[in-house]
Amino acid sequence: MTIDRTTTIPTDEQIRALHERYAPSEEAFTLVYTHCQIVCAVAEQLLDRYDSPLDVALVRAGSLLHDIGVYRLYGVTGQLDHENYVRHGVLGQALLRDLGYPELVSRFCAHHTGVGLTRTDVLRQRLPLPVDDYTADTVEEQLVMYADKFHSKTTPPTFVTAASYAAGVRRFGADKVVRFAALVEKFGEPDLPPLSRRYQQPLI
Fold first, then answer.
1. Which residues have a Cβ under 8 Å from the Cβ of 74 and sit 6 or more positions away?
2. In this predicted model, what pLDDT tens digit does every residue of 22-73 receive, in sequence order?
3. What are phi and psi of 10, to 5 degrees?
4. Phi and psi at residue 74, to the nearest 5°
5. Which CATH number goes with the domain that contains 92?
6. What gap in Å lies between CA 74 and CA 26, rounded to an integer?
7. How many CB atoms lie within 10 A of CB 163?
8. Predicted TM-score (pTM) of this structure
9. How many domains does the chain have?
């Protein structure tokens, strides 16, 4: 499915069709698409409390598409390539670009990892990425990146509190803790227990 480049924001139905098309298995689809739905639900909670108007449709699309590149990391045996997982963002952005989606949509894929990857991060950590900045620039991108921090595709998948994420991100540097704290201050904390119960996944 290739769309015209003048098309801006895909619908939920179009996005689900993309997940179904590129997921290598039902298990992969369930893991990734459910995570994206959860991130969307978290983002929408935070949207309701944010003072300034944001592009709601763009936030939904960014939330539902941000991890589509994960499918490109599944091997022929069905195993996920965890060693190169950090590449899922650039792989997703390339996939959406190739399909003709505009930059404002495809950027969500490459610009949601952690609290934003800088050129310095790529070089210092020797990440398998083109040397560039992968930071969330627009408020919509920041919101999706932030909402993503509250759910993890671990085995089993879990919801993550702000305190737990802050403790975990410290290993990447004090600057990351400060950056996450600024996002908490900007957007507030989501109400995770209802989502944890709804999806029957633990909250840590």
1. 24, 25, 28, 80, 81
2. 999 999 999 999 999 999 999 999 998 888 889 999 999 999 999 999 999 9
3. -70, 155
4. -85, 130
5. 1.10.3210
6. 12
7. 11
8. 0.94
9. 1
